[in-house]
Write a structure and sequence with these properties.
Layout lengths: L8 H7 L15 H6 L4 H7 L13 E3 L4 H12 L6 E4 L15 E4 L8 E4 L5 E6 L4 H12 L1 E2 L11 H5 L8 H4 L8 E6 L4 E4 L5 H7 L7 E12 L3 E9 L2 H12 L9 E8 L32 E11 L5 H11 L9 E7 H5 L1 H12 L9 E6 H15 L8 E7 L16 E7 L8 H21 L4 E3 L7 H8 L3 H11 L22 H4 L1
Parallel strand pairs: 1-3, 2-3
Antiparallel strand pairs: 4-5, 5-9, 6-9, 7-8, 7-9, 10-12, 10-13, 11-12, 11-15, 14-16, 14-17, 15-16
Bound molecules: flavin-adenine dinucleotide (FAD).
Pfam family, one: FAD_binding_4
InterPro entries: Cytok_DH_C_sf, Cytokinin_DH_FAD/cytokin-bd, FAD-bd_PCMH, FAD-bd_PCMH-like_sf, FAD-bd_PCMH_sub1, FAD-bd_PCMH_sub2, FAD-linked_Oxase-like_C, FAD-linked_Oxidoreductases_BP
Family: Belongs to the oxygen-dependent FAD-linked oxidoreductase family.
């Protein structure tokens, strides 16, 4: 459950000391601490926060590993105590404290080396070996600039680390076609909960490889990932079209994501918005591209419903002026049932397209909403339940908008490997629903509590209606909730934890296991 926790000053001061066993402090001159300690109180404070801004848990140390051996050293150090835990912190973009370690060790994965390196995989195939703390934006610029190549699967926002998204899923508009980021990695280097450093892949130590993918940091710290590359397109035709009715929107979106690759767009996403020309966040102004371009409200038909849908599509190409692209796009759009006259399109460079949310970040930083709490909720809802979800949640519960984007677009289960830890709905087609709430600086705590309560109401509704759904980037605090989340795979999840992190040292902020309640204590559920 989402929570708002504030530690009092006294508690915080106590947690600044490293007290692993029966009150006996660790030697601050321990070689690992001496070598890696960020040695700055401000940094420890930074590791006590995340993008969500609702959970504050101060670690004892915020360490800066530069090699996988440093990571292993910190894990071994923790394993010699009875209480210390270790959390890898990517870029801290979790929203419920998932990358925190209350009184434990947080590892700043951003400092991890070495630099990125191209790997030739035979023929023209290539991949990049990436330190897990690299941001996806760094991977993009490195691969395009140095090799004219790029990975195929992205997140919308690229200020996230490779290790962070591989621990969750990594979803964007390419996932219907290429699978999520967890399905686009061929080798990992991992430090397990007993400090062992292993290289794994689908053919070597494969159980560890699949456990770690979507494994919420529970089975190992990823220190390096090998990501396949393809030639990067130069340009993208970026298109938005508007729908008045959800059933038409969903029918077209599902048709588009199930087409053969040869006839498919390269990217399919979509969002819900309010039929309100004066709402600067959730209204018509969110539709034109590039963002902020002029839009004539006279184009809005008079009889549209209050909630509308925008399908966002992209086609890669290599030329700025390409009649062939115009013709192809025209043909591809022809069967769709969007409202004619409400199309928006632009040609942008590939890097510019993938960096589009970076510009939103700049605006949010300027307005102060990047620093305020973010009570976000991400769901994966089966296509069999999405129309009901639309009727109840989008049209009723959220009819006034949420102060940020409301994404809804279909994905294909067959693009996710069942051996991975990530939990997805049962049906072949399911929708990502992302409620990306931004709270204005003057809104206060009441607004955050209201948003959290609304998220809970939506979750209750999904459960009561018996939807086939999962929370994406989940946060639960009870064993029963985690068991329900992983459902038939819960036993496997516990067994993997026993195998790779039996003392429950890793990623305590996920609140699944703890040092006081390690996987062995889950014996009944696991048998
Ligand atoms: P952190 O938040 O630092 O860590 C997340 C979890 O992974 C923690 O439990 C941490 O301990 C663990 N972890 C981190 N690094 C490692 C590692 N190397 N090895 C093992 N465990 C590790 N997600 C999408 O799928 N698609 C999107 O389009 C998308 N857009 C987003 C946009 C914004 C603005 C934000 C804030 C989030 C978005 N996310 C998206 C969610 C994102 O995937 C998660 O926040 C994720 O946690 C990645 O963030 P991070 O790299 O900062 O990881």
């Amino acid at each position: 459950m989402m929570m708002i926790a504030y530690l009092d000053r006294q508690q915080q001061q106590q947690q600044q000391r490293l007290v692993p066993d029966g009150g006996v402090e660790l030697d601050p001159d321990h070689s690992i601490l001496r070598a890696l300690d960020s040695d700055a109180t401000g940094d420890v404070d930074a590791a006590a926060r995340d993008f969500g801004g609702m959970v504050f848990l101060k670690p004892a140390r915020f360490l800066r590993p530069s090699t996988a051996d440093d990571v292993a050293g910190a894990v071994v150090l923790a394993s010699r105590s009875s209480r210390l835990t270790v959390a890898a912190r990517g870029n801290g973009h979790s929203v419920c404290g998932q990358a925190m370690a209350d009184g434990g060790i947080v590892l700043d994965m951003r400092t991890l080396g070495p630099t990125m390196e191209i790997v030739r995989c035979g023929g023209t195939a290539a991949a990049v070996d990436v330190p897990a703390g690299a941001l996806w934006t760094e991977v993009l610029s490195w691969a395009v600039r140095n090799h004219g190549m790029a990975p195929v699967s992205w997140t919308d926002y690229l200020g996230l680390t490779v290790g962070g998204t591989l621990s969750n899923g990594g979803i964007s508009g390419q996932a219907f076609r290429h699978g999520p980021q967890v399905a686009n990695v061929t080798e990992l280097e991992v430090v397990t909960g007993d400090g062992e450093r292993l290289v794994c892949s689908p053919s070597s130590a494969s159980d560890l490889f699949f456990a770690v993918l979507g494994g919420l940091g529970q089975f190992g710290v990823i220190t390096r990932a090998r990501i396949p590359l393809v030639p990067a397109p130069k340009m993208v035709r970026w298109i938005r079209v508007v729908y008045g009715a959800f059933d038409e929107y969903a029918r077209d979106a599902e048709w588009l994501v199930t087409r053969d690759d040869s006839a498919a767009f390269d990217y399919v996403e979509g969002f819900v918005f309010r039929n309100d020309a004066s709402d600067p966040v959730s209204g018509w102004s969110s539709v034109p591209i590039p963002a902020g371009s002029a839009f004539d409200p006279a184009r809005i038909p008079a009889d549209l419903s209050p909630i509308l849908y925008c399908l966002e599509l992209a086609l890669h190409h290599d030329h700025i002026q390409d009649d062939n692209v115009d013709e192809r796009v025209k043909e591809m759009l022809r069967p769709l049932r969007y409202l004619r006259g409400l199309e928006f399109a632009a040609d942008v460079s590939y890097v510019e397209f993938l960096s589009r949310v970076g510009r939103v970040e700049e605006e949010a930083r300027a307005s102060g909403t990047w620093a305020t709490p973010h009570p976000w909720l991400n769901l994966l809802v089966s296509s069999s339940d999405i129309a009901d979800f639309d009727r109840t949640v989008f049209k009723r519960v959220l009819s006034r908008g949420i102060g940020g984007p409301m994404l809804v677009y279909p994905l294909r289960r067959s693009k996710w490997d069942e051996r991975m830890s990530v939990a997805v709905p049962d049906g072949e087609l399911f929708y990502l629903v992302a409620l990306l709430r931004f709270v204005t600086p003057h809104a206060g705590e009441a607004a955050v509590k209201e948003a959290v309560a609304q998220n809970q109401e939506i979750l209750r509704h999904c459960r009561n209606k018996g939807y086939d759904f999962k929370v994406y980037i989940p946060h639960y605090e009870s064993e029963a909730d985690w068991g329900r989340h992983f459902d038939g795979d819960w036993t496997r999840f516990i067994e993997r934890k026993r195998r790779y992190d039996p003392m429950a040292i890793l990623s305590p902020g996920q609140t699944i296991f703890s040092r006081a309640r390690p996987p062995a204590a889950f014996a009944a559920s696991a048998s």
